[in-house]
Amino acid sequence: MGQNSGVSFDRRAVLRDSLSVSFPVGMYGAAFGAASVTAGFSVAQTCAFSLLLFSGASQFAVVGVMAAGGSAISAIATGGLLGIRNGLYALRMSPILKFSGISKILGAQVTIDESTGVALSQESRGEAAMRYGFISTGIGVFVFWNLFTLIGAVSASSISDPSMWGLDAAVPAAFLGLLWPRLESSRKKFAAIASALLALALTPFLPAGLPIIATVSVALVFGWRSR
Amino acid sequence: MTSLWIATLGASLVCYLLKLAGYLVPSSFLSKPRLVRINELIPVVLLCSLVSIQTLTSEAEILIDHRMGGLVVAFCALKFKAPFPIMMLAAAFTSALIYRLGI
User: Fold this and answer.
1) Do A212 and A140 sit in the same domain of this protein?
2) Which of A68, A135, A196, B63 might form a disulfide with B58, Cβ 3.0–4.6 angstroms?
3) Is this complex's ipTM strictly greater than 0.90?
4) Which of B48, B64, B65, B98 should we substitute to test contact with A (largest number of A Cβ atoms within 10 Å)?
5) Which residues of B are less than 8 Å from A180 in CB distance?
6) How confident is the model over A154-164, as pLDDT tens digits?
7) Which residue has the higher pLDDT, B27 or A47?
8) % pLDDT > 70, chain A
């Protein structure tokens, strides 16, 4: 990140975007910490999830499957299915981030919804701003998510109901805000609506996580022809 | 090793390898216009399905509740170009209010 390659952008504006995503998303880590401890995981295991797995949806899925009496294998499979999209984000971000060596190994860990979303929303500011947004959001979410996971795990009983603080609506609202600047073409708007409907339609019939993965088919259908 | 540790470390390993795999695939994989179009749509469909699932479902059932109120407010805030933190606060406040009032 050191060299600027002559491209200047408003770092404070990018940092403001990444903070406004990473802090509220990180706070939801308290809900994960509480959920995980309530499901029977220790505080150490709960913190290990947020440090090593570091992908909210997958973490909730693994904890949920184990809490429901599922096997470790089915928990890993469910978490893994939800983790596929991070690999797809990596594929999308790779040509922009141009990671190599150790930065690739560390950068992979912070390749999540939020870092990718903020990076893509900086497109009008240029690739340097996209890289800056990705790294600052990745680190920001990592720090806040782990901090609040610990707080939530330790004080499991007091923050057991995220609905009281609107956190259960703040997280999808954050995703909506990340999605918003991506909806510039009618193709993307139609794909967004179709994927929302498909995910909802499949929810009663498929195990948790699969309806989200299944919407990749919408991307295939809408992206196939140049129109 | 207990099954809880197996789930914790196993899922962590699988999810990390999935993230890394995306960087190890050659970037020429994405040079075809069709793949570029599909790849640009992938975050759109995944984020949008996450929004709908996290707003409208609860344990494999479709459920309209306080979260929907928060998302309607978030949608309006974005429509009127409100800054991101304002949008988030408005959504959380609305949802918590509806929840606490027990509507």
Assistant:
1) no
2) B63
3) no
4) B48
5) 78
6) 987 555 577 88
7) A47
8) 93
